[in-house]
Amino acid sequence: MQENEILIIGGGIAGTSTAYYLSKYGHAVTLLERNELATEASGLNAGGILTGSSLEIFKMLQFDYGCDIEFRQSGHLKVIQTEEQGAFARQQALELTSQGQKVEILTARDARSIEPALSQDILGCMYYPHVSTADPVKTTSAFAELAQQQGATVLTNHEVTDIQGLDDGTYRIVTQQELFKAKLLVLAAGPWCRALGSMLKLHIPVYAVRAQIGSTGPVPTKIFHYIRAVESMLYWHKNPPSDAHTPQHLTHHGHQRLTRHFYARQRQNGEIIFGGDMQVDMDKIPDPAGIEVNYRHGIEIFPFLQELPIKRTWAGWVPLTRDLRPLIGKIPYFEGLYLLTGSISGFSEGPMAGKLLADYIHTGIASPVLSTADPAQHVTFAN
């Protein structure tokens, strides 16, 4: 049995960033990943960095540490297609500006001046100049490599099949390859945190929401910003879910479509990736009908896409809580048990979330910003 000071389960952006910061603080860290690194949501997302919390960390990887993560402060356009969307976007911009965020409303003419391929039919855009993009697989791998340089052990293809809390306050973690014992245990496995929690008879309220993406083949640069559409934002604002056990920001109720949700960007290799659908309780298999809806929505925004066939599609499970807020911190009822999961902007927030959790574990003091993410408010014993 391998004995460890800190063991982290999950090889996505949350787990690898936590491992990096903990190892940087001098802790002995082992990370277990059930497959390869970044094979789930952390590696399958579109790479948009939509919140500013982790922006400096992404810049650090690219410019200070020399990690080629394809970081670019691209800016972000949310496309307005109807008058109702325009009124909503203007109100949203006022609220966000009052909160200190940098956002403005562009006319269609001004939007097309910085994104020339936009359709002549759009009515304008919300513009976020500080939003950035990066390659999610390269970013996750960079954190893992930096953690290993600091002495961490990263083990892939180690699926955890059982967790036991021992009488001495430590944990016994079972994989098919070997057994591990840890003084501190971090669950950072996205939607699989729910299953891991059940091994300790805990209910962790995180849901597996399928997101899916399609892409064209490589083409010369046509899209310069990270793109989304206002349509779904307006729908979710007008129609909050009434079910206390259903996450917000879904595009479907069962198989019935509620709204279209669209995002897109062009990667460094020239691929244009686009997606949108968010469905709970679905297999990780792309739905051709849903991909087609996203593609047609994309053509409305960028007419040139109709000349570009879809070359590949993929899907993954995004871990969402009911209110879309992450769960970061110490799990009650157990000593030395910590959780990091559950954000709508997991790739964006993952690096800072990993740092905040590592700071908490290292100092024993939780940052005040984690007050709304405290697992003690949500994690319970399973019935």
Gross morphology: globular
Strand content: 25-35%
| Major sheet characteristics | 8 strands, mixed
- How far the N terminus sits from the C terminus, by CA atoms, comes to 32 Å
Q: What's the CATH architecture of the largest domain?
A: 3-Layer(bba) Sandwich
Helix content: 25-40%
Average pLDDT score: 95
Count the beta strands.
22
Number of helices: 10
CATH superfamily of the largest domain: FAD/NAD(P)-binding domain
Low-confidence stretches: none
CATH class descriptor of the largest domain: Alpha Beta
User: What fold name goes in the CATH topology slot of the largest domain?
Assistant: FAD/NAD(P)-binding domain
Domain tally: 2
Radius of gyration: 21 Å
What structural category do the secondary elements indicate? Answer: alpha+beta
Explain what the structure shows.
- Strand 9 and strand 10 (171-175) form a beta hairpin.
- This protein has 383 residues and is an alpha+beta fold.
- The strands form five sheets. Strands 1, 2, 8, 9, 10, 11, 20 and 21 form an eight-stranded mixed sheet that branches. An eight-stranded mixed sheet has the order 5-6-4-14-17-18-13-19, sandwiched between helices. Strands 3-7 form a two-stranded antiparallel sheet.
- The chain has two domains: 2-68 and 135-205 and 324-381, FAD/NAD(P)-binding domain (3-Layer(bba) Sandwich); 76-129 and 207-320, 2-Layer Sandwich (D-Amino Acid Oxidase, Chain A, domain 2), CATH 3.30.9.10.
- It has ten helices and 22 strands.
